[in-house]
Amino acid sequence: MAVRIIATGSFLPEKNVSNDELAQYVDTSDEWISSRTGIRNRRIAITETTTGMAVQSARRALEMADRSPLDVDLIIVATVTPDYGTPSAACQVQAELGADHAIAFDINAACSGFVFALNVARMYIETGYSTNALIIGSETLSKILDWNRRDTCVLFGDGAGAAFLEKSDRGIISVVQGSIGKKGMVLNFINRKTNNLFVNEPVETDYLHMDGQEVYKFAVRQCPKCLIEAMEQAQLTVEDIDYFVLHQANVRIIESVAKRLKAPIEKFPMSLGYTGNMSAASVPVMLDQLVREGSLKRGDKIAISAFGAGLTYGAAVLEW
Ligand code: COA
Fold first, then answer.
1. Nearest residue CA, atom 12 of ligand 1?
2. Are residues 243 and 291 in the same domain?
3. pTM attached to this predicted model
4. What angle do CA 146, 149, 155 make, to 5 degrees?
5. For the chain, which has fewer Cβ within 10 Å, the N-terminal or C-terminal residue?
6. 209 part of the active site
7. Active site residue 247
8. What whole-number distance in Å separates Cα of residue 63 and Cα of residue 67?
9. What is the position in ligand 1's atom list of the atom closest to the CA of 250?
10. Which residue, 317, 150, 121, is CA-closest to 228?
11. Residue 129: which domain range?
12. What CATH number is given to the structural domain containing 50?
């Protein structure tokens, strides 16, 4: 018995922001951004919300799966930008979908969130606790960015992607997960630490901070390492894998991983050019694109991998 992604869905906000448009407000240029990251456009939420985008992507996945919201047993939303501290984004998605029989909760593993959610959902299904799962990565990163800081605001975008999982004779073959909490501060966004009657300090509010070079080094080291581990566990080689679906942070990171694995870059589909880095939404949005354009077919072998704040990283090998 295995657990398989039987359907996908995605949703991007309507407003497109090009590098040139951004350069009207921030001291940057299309040349700087595209040569260092591969990003040319990103979608930015104006009226869209983390829950709203999650719901739209979930509806598309359920439609593809030909399942009703009442069939859903488990909803996991991976996000660092929920609309509310509580209720969770997953509980809000449950309510909006009318998925009244589901268990719903969020996971905060930043850009690795979709891979982490995949493994949790897989275990719920493998143990028989749930018969299926809707896992969603949804992010409105634009609300935690400092739009005066060119070193971060140019990198990210908003969006959501979903996958519907069920038992099958084939599907997820191996998953690797890891966390390096002691390095966590290289990519952080602070919440209130304290706020009560007895605290005299002003309440801190802040935006996303990143040591870009440290994150880059972490990504190019850890991403190929966990992909190799996942392929070894699956007893497959680079040649057996049809697509490597990586977290869409930076074209240079993806090229470096391809080089390290000695895999042709053509096996690494990219959407970052028009989405930017959408954290937990990156991998499921890329998967949905591959499915809907007909590139990803049943029986293909794929390896997915993501890395991000926490620090967290993960990889999975699947037969599609
Ligand atoms: N436009 C123009 N100049 C910019 C800029 C921008 N958007 N952002 C930074 N710069 C400037 C810096 O101020 C610096 O100028 P200085 O030398 O005069 O101080 C210069 O460009 C170089 O900055 P640096 O940070 O050394 O650039 P870099 O080559 O390391 O590239 C990143 C920066 C962010 C593209 C790169 O570090 C990276 O990709 N890191 C990984 C980030 C990531 O993927 N994070 C998410 C992971 S989930």
1. 151
2. yes
3. 0.96
4. 85
5. N
6. no
7. yes
8. 6
9. 44
10. 317
11. 2-169
12. 3.40.47.10
Q: How far apart are the first and last CA of the chain?
A: 14
Tell whether ligand 1 has an atom less than 6 A from the beta carbon of residue 151: yes
Q: Which one is catalytic: 91, 111, 153, 226?
A: 111
Residue 320 has pLDDT above 70, yes or no: yes
Mapping DSSP to helix (H, G, I), strand (E, B) and coil, where does residue 61 land? helix
Q: What is the DSSP letter of 268?
A: S
Q: Of 41, 119, 250, 277, which is the active-site residue?
A: 277
Number of domains in the chain: 2
**Of all protein residues, whose CA lies closest to atom 23 belonging to ligand 1?**
151
- Please give the distance, rounded to the nearest whole angstrom, from the Cα atom of residue 191 to the centre of ligand 1: 25
Q: Please report the pLDDT score of residue 197 as a whole number.
A: 84
Same domain flag for 149 and 178: no
Whether residue 163 is predicted with pLDDT greater than 90 in this model: the reply is: yes
Residues 137 and 247 in one domain: no
Return the HEC string of 181-220.
HHHHHHEECCCCCCCCCCCCCCCCCCCCEECHHHHHHHHH
d(CA 266, CA 295): 12
Q: Mean pLDDT throughout 133-150?
A: 96
Taking residue 258's Cβ as centre, other Cβ atoms within 10 Å add up to 19
What whole-number distance in Å separates Cα of residue 137 and Cα of residue 262? 29
pLDDT at 203: 67
Query: Is 24's C-beta closer than 6 angstroms to any atom of ligand 1?
Result: no
Cβ of 28 closer than 6 Å to ligand 1, yes or no, is yes
Q: Kindly tell me if the per-residue pLDDT of 191 is higher than 90.
A: no
Give dist(CA 112, CA 2) in Å, integer: 22
The average confidence (pLDDT) of the chain is 96
277 tagged catalytic: yes
Q: Atom 20 of ligand 1 has which residue's CA nearest to it?
A: 151
